[in-house]
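Cross-posting from the modeling subforum.

Setting up a comparison between two proteins and wanted a second pair of eyes on the formatting. Protein 1 (sequence, then structure tokens):
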Amino acid sequence: MIEIRAYASSSGGNVYRVSDGVTPLLLDCGLPFAELRKRLRFGVFHLGACLVSHEHADHSKAARDLAKAGVDVYASRGTMDALGLSGHRLHVIEARRQFQVGSWTVLPFDTVHDAAEPLGFLLATRAGDKLLYATDTAYLRYRFKRLTHIMVECNYSLDIARANVQTGALNVEVKNRLVRSHFSLENVKEFLRANDLSRVEEIWLLHLSDANSDAERFRREIIEVTGKPVIVAEA
């Protein structure tokens, strides 16, 4: 059984805790360390590791301090270099090269974002559950089998973004960056339709845009496409 907890999920910060009942992990650490400790109820030292998807501050802000506190941090070479991180608690990983963290098996994969070397993660438990974590990506080129849990960015809807451009609420350049580097509702639907959802227990929608999303609409439309329980991470 996989337990998921969202502590932050927005452009202001992204932090998620997942556990298989044996090894708790952080997926991204985009809050100041002091705030992260408070939200974790000072349980930082119980973490098995932190997996960092890319170097943008809303995903990596506490990486250095976590390593100083004795938590192993895993990220790509591009992410480590962009953050200027090094040390024995910092572990460089590569896309499509599997590794172990406690009781988890982790397979990183490349994503599409305006970052140095962004990654998503496929995490498997000893019991056979599989969790997909994919954030800050324009699309996913891979297909996944036998997933039980999906945590996926659903940042914006193209029609909302276009309407905001027309009213002047959204700059055209910002809208174009959204399209190039974030997962839209439309692309999330296509991704989910293309994958094996037969064993999926729940789908988490992550990192919704403050101005270019609609949480209840997104949840409803993903339920219509998948027939699965859908949770919008709004922490």
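Protein 2 (same layout):
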Amino acid sequence: MFFKKLLLSAAVALLVIAAPAEAARRSVPIVDIPVVAVPWPNGQAGSPDAVKAAILAGLVMKSWTGQVVAPGLIRGTLLIRTHRVEVDIAYTATEYSIKYADSDNLGYRADKREIHPKYNGWVRQLRETIDAQFLLRSMG
């Protein structure tokens, strides 16, 4: 009898511990950053090269790597422990966008276009950091 109670208690404890962790891993819809106007201060016009430099600097600031794969297109990659995410950042002199490209170990579900909840936060922070680079570059 004591052994059964002990096993039952252990099973309940595992469920209580595992439930919040599982809930935190539920997939969420991917939020791409559609076309964003380049936020140059005072409406200054920049060049595509200046936009590329700001994007690459923003990637580095958030521990992403960036590789120019074509004119006007950068592939950003973030590695965190066993997780990998890749985004495509298309840009011109006046706008840019960030779109999901690929991932590993983030529970990506192509049929629903869903992924681990951390993904959207990483991309949002990346966008904020890239936008900050435009301000920094205009000041220096």
